[in-house]
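Tutorial, part two.
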Amino acid sequence: YMEDSTKKSVQDTIRFIEEAQKNFKNTKPIITPRFIPTCTDELMKNLAELKRKYHLPMQSHLSENRGEIEWVKELCPWAECYGDAYDESGILEGKYSSIMAHCVSSTDEEVELLKEREVFVAHCPKSNLNLMSGIAPIRKYMEKEIPIGLGSDVAGGETLSIFEEMAKAIQVSKMYWRYVDEQCRPLTVPEALFLATRGGGAFFGKVGSFEEGFEFDAIVIDDSQIKTQLDLTLTERLERIVYSSGQCKLIAKTVSGKKIFVD
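Running the prediction step on this input gives:
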């Protein structure tokens, strides 16, 4: 897939932004350069300008695998790290306005850049496994107070279930602790739940929590199909749902205080 020219790509992007802003109420446009190797320097700078002009966020991916990182080094030998190749265009500027997926092999310099630019990391554990990219050091990012959410990567991950991503995030963090760095404690279920709700929701505002002042987004789950002889606490039931969500039934969903599904 190739664009005819940088000019045509920018024009198409402007048309998409303006049509989306005019026609959709709840779906908002986001600037999405594929990644550094597919975008000219001129295009990246133009996209950064559109980001500022229309007050839009940006999403892309960063340091997903070693081959990609080496490729960016060849294309941008002046960059101190992969993230610096993005930052040079100005597209990372703006508080909490950028999302970078993966960040599996980010250098210390890149981690500091993410923190400085207040970039969100979208952790996609299933995709990273399927594509053999590696394991992102999520505990390291959490300790640096870098905002993090969970994602499926759509095609890279084989399902869209956030519960399955929560379970896999916990599991791969255990492998990271065991085989890569025993100083990075594995994620707990409450931490994975936070990443899947309030962590990622922070990108959109007051979303992902039942705290006062937040949008009321909720799902009602029937876990009675998971048989047990134990008298489980609510916390234990939640942990069981995370690992066995496929055996549960969704019976209601509410978004921004409005019921959009009832079984």
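The longest strand covers residues 249-255. In part three we will examine how such features are distributed along the chain.
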